[in-house]
Design goal:
single chain; mainly beta; Porin; about 300 residues
Length: about 300
């Protein structure tokens, strides 16, 4: 079984011709401590999401509704419509997710329990605007203009822009180079993101680098790195190892993660994780133990 298939399967439920839904439920528990004390424990519905999808000859649309215990309510995560101009070029308008970064936004498509220190709070999220993508046989280009790459403030005062080129020069290998920026009153925030992922048989490996400019304040710059490997030992058990490092003006973090996953069925997985972080600023270290029961539909 290929490692890329180690993430719990997700199949659309057909409601009518062209209309379907899919989603997932994440029930999680975790315990963390800093320097062996100040333990924080949680047990909660991490996320419940239902996605409504429409697919026609040249038009597609998607609306994602999301609930978390932390928000205490239902949020509109995504809502967009897409138009296929040709077999290779398409446009998307509405609220959609950034193209930047290797790790996925939703937990149902993560290989491990948590997002890395080099991605959480660093990647852009959802924003509203217009995007276009050209996809050739081995090469593609993506570009978007949005209401704020990170801020997503609903107006056009401070626009954000993304551009990404991607290629698959060999079977199983994907390389993406992206740039995103957002104009501000005092400074322009920006990220350059490069990652490569390779899957062969039961192994998936990935490496990522991000260059960060004016994050949170003018002149606040940094670099972020991640190395990840997932190996599927059997069809029902796989493990992810991950190393992440942040070297920035506001923080310096070293992080190691091991995350075994147990595949109970096509729709149910149990993901466990141990994560250790060292904070060079202040000299603290943090340990996390966590488990997630993930049901997809």
């Amino acid at each position: 079984m290929a490692a890329v298939a180690s993430v719990t399967a997700q199949a659309e439920i057909e409601l009518a011709e062209g209309f379907s839904l899919q989603g997932f439920l994440d029930v999680s528990a975790s315990s963390s401590d800093v320097d062996g004390k100040d333990t924080k424990s949680t047990a909660e519905i991490g996320e419940f999401e239902v996605d409504f999808l429409y697919g026609g000859d040249s038009i597609n649309a998607q609306v994602d509704l999301n609930y978390t215990d932390s928000s205490g309510g239902v949020d509109l995560e995504q809502a967009f419509v897409g138009f296929s101009v040709s077999d290779q070029f398409s446009l998307t308008a509405g609220k959609f997710l950034s193209s930047i970064g290797y790790e996925t936004y939703d937990v149902n498509t993560l290989n491990q329990f948590s997002h890395a220190a080099s991605t959480a709070g660093i990647y852009p999220g959802h924003h509203t605007g217009l995007a276009g993508v050209y996809s050739g046989d081995t090469f593609g280009v993506y570009g978007s203009v949005v209401d704020g790459t990170w801020s997503a403030d609903g107006d056009t005062d401070d626009l954000g822009y993304e551009v990404q080129v991607f290629t698959s020069p060999a079977e199983g290998l994907t390389i993406k180079l992206g740039y995103a920026t957002e104009s501000g009153a005092a400074y322009d925030k920006a990220i350059i993101n490069l990652w490569a992922g390779y899957s062969v048989d039961s192994l998936t490996v990935a490496a990522e680098y991000s260059s960060l400019e004016d994050y949170g304040a003018s002149g606040s710059d940094g670099d972020a790195y991640m190395l990840m490997a997932n190996y599927a030992f059997t069809e029902t058990f796989n493990t992810t190892l991950r190393y992440a490092h942040v070297d920035a003006d506001w923080a310096e973090i070293d992080e190691f993660t091991i995350s075994p996953r147990f595949v109970i069925s096509d729709s149910v997985s149990v993901i466990t994780e141990y994560r250790h972080r060292d904070y060079d600023v202040g000299g603290a270290d943090e340990d996390l133990l966590a488990a997630r029961v993930l049901y997809t539909f």
